[in-house]
Design brief:
The complex is a heterodimer of chains A (309) and B (344). Chain A contains 14 helices and two strands, in the order H-H-E-E-H-H-H-H-H-H-H-H-H-H-H-H. Chain A is mostly helical and 309 residues long. Chain A has one domain (84-308): MetI-like fold. In chain A, strands 1-2 form a two-stranded antiparallel sheet. The longest helix of chain A is centred in the first third of the chain and has 34 residues, at 21-54. Chain B has 344 residues and is of the alpha+beta class. In chain B, 27% of the residues lie in helices and 32% in strands. Chain B has nine helices and 19 strands. In chain B, the strands form four sheets. In chain B, strands 6-7-8-3-9-10 form a six-stranded mixed β-sheet, sandwiched between helices. Chain B has a five-stranded antiparallel β-sheet with strand order 13-17-14-15-16, with no helix packed on it. In chain B, strands 2-1-4-5 form a four-stranded antiparallel β-sheet, covered by helices on one side. In chain B, strand 15 and strand 16 form a beta hairpin. Chain B is elongated and about 75 Å long. The chains are: A mainly alpha (309), B alpha+beta (344). The A-B interface holds A 202, 204-205, 207-215, 218, 222-223, 226-227, 229 and B 50-52, 72-74, 77-79, 81, 83, 85, 87-89, 98-99, 102-103, 146, 150.
């Protein structure tokens, strides 16, 4: 048998009647998406369904007793438990403080660092580095820096005659301190998004405005800022969602204190589940947080559609 | 209306000189076209005039005033960009009125001037549309309209037709020519398309490597090119260039007066196809390209080189044919060893 005859025979043998071209392509497509799909089912959909089921139970992790209670956990959280609304208020406060500060700083840095100049890559790296720094290391360092009298921040303030507060121990200042340190850690990410958006705006727009007599402020206000609107919207929503989900930062810096002044929703869920072992109640709180984040995501989609329309 | 004078104008990006000692005067109301191959510095020169690029050395005068250090918005110029640079979030009306708005002009006056410009350019029905809702030609007209409302002394056009299809380009070219006729302003137009340059310009400035190769009317540049570069850049298809000695050796008929020429040039449209041995040269057709109105023939002449011939008519020579090439000695351009024209 010649090599060509052999190949032809093998081709005939491997032909399967039901494996049409369309089915073959579909099979290939499923094979390509299957790793992601399996990961999604195991690590997202499965836990989500499990949490949904746990939320309908009263399940104490220590006694291992589980009782179906329907929506009692939700009713308790939303109508009975005063801590819940305090925690939601704290989360909202954290978001309201963090989001505008983060976005304003990110935009200012992006404007400064979007054009090439000597050392621009160095400065971009400096501002982005905290994003990839370990949250634990970041929080521990800042905890030391923000100590009462011994902290470097207060010593610096003292050198210019300002008597700094005990940042992480005073309820009024603790929230401010965690917001600012979180902003410094995460601002690099939004800065990069803004830099990308600014670099995508053709320079012709700016130059045309400049030729027509627009000042720098007018160029920014009347041309650049409106063109950044889609990016601003995305940044606003992902930063808001991220701020509602913040856990590690609070856990490591204040542990929710002082006097529950920095106790936010994600940390409260952790407390309920792994300090008080109320897995059912913690699951119900997690579902409520999921709904809040989902609602914010839907708002994002609607606003984006309106914006692009 | 305003004249311009460029004296020893130069521009460097670090050690790289992109514009070298440009001397040029542009009269009131003149339509001047900067033309040249990509990278020759024509857009940079325009942007220097606009104030979008710093001038490294030399003087730029607009009217009686030295403009080197004057900001772009105070030079009395308006520019139409290659990309049109229409603000995508503003309507046509807002785009056209943008410059007047930033100068805090009263709304009534803005509307009046925008309406006048829109009537001139037949944009009335498009005023509430956004740029994304316009065709290429409409965007082009809006960009021109935006330039008009500012009532500038000088219009600058940076390859404004290069994003349009061939048909629309011809149409817009005529509109720009008509606009110049109506407004009478000084206009400077950059293009790499020599047809655009020939059809629009009062005078053409041919640039290469940041230097002016020749300045003249379209007819002057076509009939009396200053050098081989201009001779080949102006005219389509480009001029045939061949060694003077070899063509003199091979050609029959009247002797060619070489005047120390090293190269000679003959435009494709000045060569006529004749029967074998009936012209000045004999050659073989290597490629025949039918163009509709005629054919473009690639002809190999032994001992001389290859020639392009623009042959009119529907019955042209075919590939492989041996033909004669006839030309008048008056149509032959002579160039010295440096490529500089020798005028007889």
């Amino acid at each position: 048998m010649t090599p060509s005859e052999k190949t032809t025979t093998m081709a005939h043998a491997s032909r399967v009647p039901w494996l049409t071209l369309r089915r073959k392509e579909a099979l290939e497509a499923w094979l390509f998406v299957s790793p992601t799909l399996i990961g999604f089912v195991i690590f997202f959909l499965g836990p989500l369904i499990a949490v949904g089921l746990y939320s309908l139970t009263e399940w104490n992790l220590l006694s291992q007793e589980s009782t179906f209670v329907g929506v009692a956990n939700f009713r308790d959280a939303l109508t009975v438990n005063p801590d819940f609304w305090h925690v939601v208020r704290n989360s909202a406060l954290f978001a309201l403080g963090l989001v505008p500060m983060n976005m304003a700083l990110a935009l200012m840095l992006a404007i400064a660092l979007s054009r090439p100049f000597f050392g621009v890559v160095f400065f971009r790296t400096i501002f982005f580095a905290p994003v990839i720094t370990s949250a634990v290391a970041w929080a521990i360092v800042w905890k030391f820096l923000l100590q009462g009298e011994a902290g470097a921040v207060n010593q610096l303030l003292a050198s210019i005659g300002i008597d700094g507060p005990n940042w992480l121990r005073e309820p009024n200042w603790a929230m401010f301190a965690v917001i600012v340190t979180r902003v410094i850690k995460m601002v690099g990410l939004n800065m990069i998004l803004y830099i990308a958006a600014l670099q995508a705006i053709p320079r012709d727009y700016e130059q045309a405005a400049q030729l027509e007599g627009a000042s720098r402020w007018q160029v920014f206000h009347m041309v650049i800022w409106p063109l950044l609107a889609p990016t601003t919207l995305i940044i606003m929503v992902i930063t808001t969602i991220g701020s509602f989900k913040v856990f590690d930062h609070i856990y490591l810096m204040t542990g929710g204190g002082p006097e529950n002044g920095t106790l936010v929703l994600a940390y409260y869920i952790y407390q309920q589940g792994f300090e008080f072992f109320n897995i059912g109640y913690a699951s119900a709180l997690a579902i409520i947080m999921f709904v809040i984040v989902l609602a914010l995501t839907i708002v994002q989609l609607i606003l984006r559609q309106k914006g692009s329309g | 209306m305003t004249s311009l004078a460029l004296s020893n104008l130069a521009k460097s990006f670090g050690p790289v000189k992109v514009i070298r000692d440009i001397d040029l005067s542009i009269d009131d109301g003149e339509f001047v076209v900067f033309v040249g191959p990509s990278g020759c510095g024509k857009s940079t020169l325009l942007r220097m005039i606009a104030g979008l690029e710093d001038i490294t050395s030399g003087d730029l005068m607009i009217g009686e005033r030295r403009m080197n250090e004057v900001s772009a918005s105070k030079r009395g110029v308006a520019m139409v960009f290659q990309s049109y640079a229409l603000y995508p979030h503003l309507t046509v009306r807002q785009n056209m009125g943008f410059g007047l708005k930033v100068r805090k002009m009263p709304v009534d006056e803005i509307n009046q001037r925008v309406d006048e410009a829109s009537a001139t350019l037949k944009l009335d029905v498009l005023m509430d549309r956004f740029p994304r809702e316009l065709s290429g030609g409409q965007r082009q007209r809006v960009a021109i309209g935006r330039a008009i409302v500012g009532n500038p002394d000088v219009f600058l056009f940076d390859e404004p037709l290069s994003n349009l299809d061939a048909e629309l380009r011809v149409h817009m070219r005529a509109e720009i020519a008509a606009l110049h006729g109506r407004l009478g302003n000084t206009m400077i137009y950059v293009t790499h398309d020599q047809i655009e340059a020939m059809t629009l310009a009062d005078r053409i400035v041919v640039l290469r490597d940041g230097r002016i190769e020749q300045v003249g009317t379209p007819r002057e540049l076509y009939a009396r090119p200053a050098n081989v570069f201009v001779a080949q850049f102006i005219g389509s298809p480009k001029m045939n260039i061949c060694p003077a000695a070899s063509i003199a050796r091979e050609m029959s008929g009247d002797n060619l007066e070489l005047n120390k020429a090293v190269q000679v040039g003959i435009r494709p449209e000045h060569l006529r196809v004749a029967a074998k041995d009936a012209g000045n040269l004999n050659g073989r057709v290597t490629v025949s390209e039918y163009t509709g109105a005629g054919s473009l023939l690639h002809i190999e002449v032994d001992g001389v080189g290859s020639f392009l011939v623009a042959e009119e008519g529907q019955v042209g020579a075919q590939q492989g044919d041996v033909i004669g090439l006839a030309f008048s000695n008056d149509d032959v351009h002579l160039f010295d060893k440096d490529g500089v024209a020798i005028h007889r």
